[in-house]
């Protein structure tokens, strides 16, 4: 028994990535691949925060609108957003209109810019890469937090980041390749190059 589904292309994927074409494309090409640039990490951090309480498919479908609304997630541009921008964002039906998450994204852009003085967001986030990665065979074995995500959340909050709880940060770590939670047997397992022997 397995939580993997073999598609018509002969490739094994978890159930969540097996049927929706958008999720399948995301799983096959992006999820779990290393993201080491500031803008890329700021975007993933922002989208993970917006996803909290919603489905990832919803966020992916709105991703183009998010990019347009948040200046393609350029931290300098978002850090300069003012009250007029918040009003604009809260009127934008293309994104998730949650004031707390909008405010957090702007605050996180400012914190990202400030973090450059200490090596920058990528080096900071990747410094929490653990010594080992999970090896789940079934979806129920995939953790939702880890000691690393707890520590990352605490460290980011101390730097002024918001909406960065341990569960959201574990999802970020999965999405950007810091840990590999592809199910054993998936065609994507160990494909990132970060965990070649897992």
From TrEMBL:
Entry superkingdom: Bacteria
GO molecular function, one example? metal ion binding
> Tell me, which GO biological process terms does this entry list?
base-excision repair
Q: InterPro entries from the entry?
A: Adenine_glyco, DNA-3mA_glycosylase, DNA_glycosylase
Q: Which residues bind Zn(2+)?
A: 182
> Has keyword Metal-binding?
yes
Designated name of the protein: DNA-3-methyladenine glycosylase I
Q: Which organism is it from?
A: Georgenia satyanarayanai
